[in-house]
Specification:
The protein has 269 residues and is α/β, with parallel strands linked by helices. α1 crosses α7 and α4 packs across α6.
Length: 269
């Protein structure tokens, strides 16, 4: 059995594998209020075991799902009771079941997609080939880490809580799709439509934000036994962006992208 838990990035996979209308899309995913995993009819051969249950996190008022707080000088992990109760039934599941997470994922895009009034750029260690934008103010990549980390901590806390509650279950976290091209963003700007007058940040900078955000997650979760599923290599255009025909807009993949994710999940089994 595959269990899916996540937010809007999960929609592409649901559309790709469902045998019937999944009843959820990017236009209405945030209206879902189920508090338990629900069965999804799967097309034969699309997922291991052809068995799927899913839980979309949106309007349950479980914000934040999980967080860290300081108590008595110690860092304590806390999670919303609704989130915990949704995971409880998975504690007795048979060996071989997999929990696949699509939790959060858009933080890096929210802070990098629109061009800053005072344009800046940075060198990302290990990806020096991405260069620097001429005339942009250079800043330290450590400064960008500090900017991104508060967004990633929410994902780290939720994944850590799932691992704590489900110590023996295989867990896979699906990283978000690569940044879309500027042309695709302008044609389907999603939530950024009212702010496009500031311009779109150059792709090379957005890719660096994306790579650094994913790096922070991998670093935090490397000792927790959570597999990180990278974007499918065949989803990348030559410039490192998400291929236009796989994009649903500014920050999401479409059904064809979801089919590539399903192939990756089949390869994991």
């Amino acid at each position: 059995m595959i269990y899916l838990i996540g937010m809007s990035h999960m929609v592409s996979l649901l559309h790709a594998v469902s045998a019937a209308d999944a009843g959820v899309g990017l236009h209405n995913w945030d209206h879902q209020a189920a508090e338990h995993f629900f069965p999804v009819s799967v097309q034969p051969g699309m997922l291991p075991g052809d068995a799927l249950k899913a839980l979309i996190i949106s309007s349950q008022n479980w914000t934040p799902l999980a967080k860290y707080s300081e108590q008595g000088g110690q860092r304590v992990l806390w999670a919303h009771e609704g989130f915990i109760q949704a995971l409880r039934p998975l504690q007795e599941k048979p060996e071989g079941d997999t929990l696949v997470s699509f939790l959060h994922g858009n933080g890096h895009a929210a802070i990098s997609l629109l061009q800053h009034p005072a344009p800046f750029d940075f060198v990302l260690p290990g990806h020096e080939d991405l260069g620097m934008q001429p005339g942009f103010q250079p800043v330290s990549h450590q400064l960008i880490r500090k900017q991104i980390m508060p967004y990633q901590v929410t994902t780290i806390a939720a994944l850590s809580m799932m691992r704590m509650l489900l110590p023996g279950m295989r867990m896979v976290h699906v990283l978000p799709p690569p940044p879309s091209s500027e042309q695709q963003i302008r044609s389907k700007p999603e939530l950024f439509a009212s702010r496009m007058e500031s311009g779109v940040t150059p792709l090379s900078i957005r890719i660096k934000y994306y790579l650094l955000a994913n790096r922070l997650l991998r670093e935090a979760m490397q000792s927790h036994g959570v597999d990180m599923l990278e974007a499918p290599p065949e989803s990348l255009a030559a410039d490192g962006s998400l291929r236009d025909e796989l994009s649903a807009g500014a920050t999401h993949g479409n059904q064809a992208y979801g089919a590539l994710l399903a192939a990756q999940l089949r390869a994991l089994s």
